[in-house]
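Next up, a specimen:

>
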Amino acid sequence: MAKKSKKQQQGGTPATVALTAAGVAFTIHAYDHDPSHPSYGEEAAQAMGVSPDRVFKTLVADVDGTLTVAVVPVAGSLDLKALASAVGGKRAAMADPALAERTTGYVRGGISPLGQRKKLPTVLDSSASAHGTICVSAGRRGLEVELSPEDLAKLTDAVVAPVGRA
């Protein structure tokens, strides 16, 4: 296991460390995670009092053998065909959760599109552009980061495409 930086030891996550290093504006939102809640994303939206359209979940899919990150609103679902198309692939399926956790360095329900162990191709749903800021996981359950969709796209080298479904 990699040695944690001083910032991480003080409560930061790889996502917040990456944001700080990039010098972008962001806000952290912490809440008490309820393990019995049926949806991590909806729980985050409710706990923060934010519209589910502004809270985005990070999903890991396998597109033609390449793990790919999709960032879509928690209020909807991922369109796998649209995801494959957005990255020039033919077929997409949800990745094995254990593989997603090992590859990103985060646990399910806390996978952030930022600060992943291995940088993966990323697609941000185009609906994010309708908001001044959006919230994504900050790298653990009960911790969200709010930032502009433009900064998120830039920091993750994301393709912005319509990959979410209402």
Observations:
- Helices lie at 6-9, 14-22, 40-48, 80-86, 97-104, 149-156.
- The chain has a mean pLDDT of 91.
